[in-house]
Amino acid sequence: MKILVDAHGRAPNPRRVKIFLAEKGVDVDYEPVDLAEMEQKKESLTRLNPLQRVPVLILDDGTVICESVAICRYFEELHPEPALMGEGAQGKAMVEMWQRRMELNFLFHVAQTFRHSHPAMKEMEVPQVPDWAAANPPHVLRMISMLDGELAGREFIAGDRFTIADITALIATDFMKVARIDRPAGVPNFDRWYDAVSSRPSAGA
Q1: Is residue 171's pLDDT more than 80?
Q2: Is the pLDDT at 119 greater than 90, yes or no?
Q3: pLDDT 10s digits, 124-149
């Protein structure tokens, strides 16, 4: 079993899986893919993932699982503790709700800003649309403001336990720097949450 990941550790989705597995205490072999050298476009990786993206989980029987949350789900089923995707019907639904919100309303907009503005993405995002890049940061700031209000009443994004929703929001927040989106002032609850989750040992994975 191995997981293909970004060789330089900057891509958010491979990092999401690595943090998830660090929280689980699961050791997996990681095989680096140099995205800057366009290794993800080579035929060998394209056969595994036609979308030419990482992470890619390759099981011992040859089964290939792509998409970071799907990979996390696989390991959640194998190693249910600590539960990072919720417990019970209500708990799992709440984590899924917040995970989707963090992915679609936070990480997506940070990533789109980066992909459509950064010179390093010029060959990967064809065509780059500068106006689309400029349209995304306001969505990011609105989500942070909403989270600041939500986090006034609880420790973590989906409740009183650290979950995959926190992992997604953490990597989105960290990726804001790469996307050149400044974190806003006046969000003390969000800042408290970020300081706590970014201090966890798994954040360095």
Answers
A1: yes
A2: no
A3: 777 889 999 999 999 999 999 999 99
Residue-number span of the structural domain to which 98 is assigned? 88-204
Q: Which residues, in sequence order, are CB contacts of 21 under 8 Å at separation 6+?
A: 27, 28, 75, 205
Residue 99: the pLDDT is 98
Burial code of 25-58, b = ≥16 C-beta within 10 A, e = fewer?
Answer: eeeeebeebebeeebbeeeebeebbeebbbbbbb
For residues 105 and 167, state if they share a domain: yes
CA 80 – CA 59 distance, rounded (Å): 19
pTM: 0.95
Percent of the chain with pLDDT over 70: 100
- Say if residue 55 is preceded by a cis peptide, omega within 30 of 0: yes
83 domain-assigned: no
The pLDDT value given to residue 3: 98
Q: Which residues pair with 4 in a beta bridge?
A: 31, 56
User: Beta strand pairing status for 64-66 and 29-33?
Assistant: unpaired
Residue 156 main-chain phi, psi, to 5 deg:
-120, 170
Q: Amino acid letter at 40?
A: Q
Which residues contact residue 24 at a Cβ distance below 8 angstroms, ignoring those fewer than 6 apart? 75, 79, 82, 84
Could you tell me if residue 15 is inside a domain?
A: yes
CA distance 51 to 16: 18
